[in-house]
């Protein structure tokens, strides 16, 4: 078979595809051009179709209105209807519909003349320009255009939800966790929402596992990490593997998820004046917080007027020290502190009512300082940043809640009063969507119920509140992943609020589990009191005869040892007296303080006088030139005293 020449090949291409090639490839459209799509023309066609449909709907509505008016006229005037106008409209609509149908039929007939490959185009994709239709089409078709009506409906639904953020509050269901009888002063939830940790005034820290609990709601572990100090703050790290424990002591602790100690901060020297020169806190702690980005870094504030940052790897010294000061440069005690959401700022509220914000890397001067944020002398219990990082909320001891914009930190954005607080750790938090601010209120015992109050962030209106219990609400925590609210109260309860439709996992996992029934083998039908040595295995064997026991005692060297006689004096016969048993005491009692010579001490001294006078060796040579001669007074006898007696004494006698 000979190959065709170049002229033959070009001739075949110009005339059309080779029939042999079509048989070989399996389809007849081989060699045709791929169709190109003009997006502007497609959009224009879609717009025209929408306008045409809207005109038809308007015409229908007008026709219905006219029919209604005519029916009313018939009822009122009892006149035969004149429906000429309506026929005109109908005829017009019919003619328009006929025109559109004829145009569509013409387009379809025109397009049917050309050979198309693939599925037919939808009506919205058909185009009017004839130059594109005449070309052959190859390749897949573009996706159909989405209708704008559905998007509008979704936008309307979103706007309704945005207008009413109260509907997102998960408060339809609740569970109660019994921590103890004293105030729950600390709450912590890990980032995944699997475990909750609670701490209180009873020094206990309890661990709750939502996936492992049943309907009995019992903690799986309880411990006292700080001995006899009240728990002030508990917080999981950003990775969830460590817990920061801040108590009433001067040393913060870090424990792992199971409660074992990881590190303990060092205590500083309280006798150093400049607190920046000591290695740790020297007074009671208030609160602490983990860095949101850097693993292993956390912060604490204390009564020693400092805010210190720490690293878990270096517990022997703090990383940096921030010293809050008044406008006059005097020390002031920080009562609470926190990191910003990005971790670049450190905010602290002080006892003089001021709020001071530092750059994390600059410890000398604060970046922002507002000196009258709350009333002086009241302990601001909480400061927290919003999720967008621009707004700061502060819960004051003056029964107020305030919002601040850190971009214009010269006055509060909003302020709400009438929120009583009696605890130095009453906190506030933002909702996960940043549209609500939540805080708790305190009450006296038997004088009402504590409430959880919700404020809208945009207007700061009091939009919602929940009655928690007949005690104060101290802690509140709104987890963003679970969409559940945890509350710590003043009567030892920790409550979890959730909604089955809006919340995820958390309390929903343990509510559905039934309480495990105790097996009969695990319980005793009757409580027995077993006395000591009542069982045979603990009972002492009774002696059969005293003679054998005496023989055994005779062979025992300890029992048959002769009693020691009482010690007379400092110690004799190789035994030491009762005043000590050391070698030095033995030497002192037997040598240096030996009192065997009971003679006259004057005679004992003068016994060596003659030898010292004949052979002076120690003292006399030193005073040979300066020592005066010894002169002793003469002792008179009794006869000489009687002679020298005066006469008046003799006469009296």
TrEMBL record:
Residues 45-77, 88-97, 125-135, 539-564, 643-653 have a biased composition (Basic and acidic residues). PANTHER family: GASTRULATION DEFECTIVE PROTEIN 1-RELATED, WD REPEAT-CONTAINING PROTEIN 70. It holds the Pfam family WD40. WD repeats lie at residues 177-209, 278-320, 383-407. It comes from Enhydra lutris kenyoni. Residues 570-579 have a biased composition (Gly residues). The keyword Ubl conjugation applies. Residues 104-116, 147-164 have a biased composition (Acidic residues). Belongs to the WD repeat GAD-1 family. This is WD repeat-containing protein 70. It comes from the Eukaryota. InterPro entries: WD40/YVTN_repeat-like_dom_sf, WD40_repeat_dom_sf, WD40_rpt, WD_repeat_GAD-1. One of its GO terms (cellular component) is nucleus. Residues 1-27, 43-172, 539-579, 630-653 are annotated as: Disordered. The lineage of its organism: Eukaryota, Metazoa, Chordata, Craniata, Vertebrata. Keywords: Acetylation, Isopeptide bond, Phosphoprotein, Repeat, Ubl conjugation, WD repeat. SUPFAM superfamilies: WD40 repeat-like. The gene is LOC111141227.
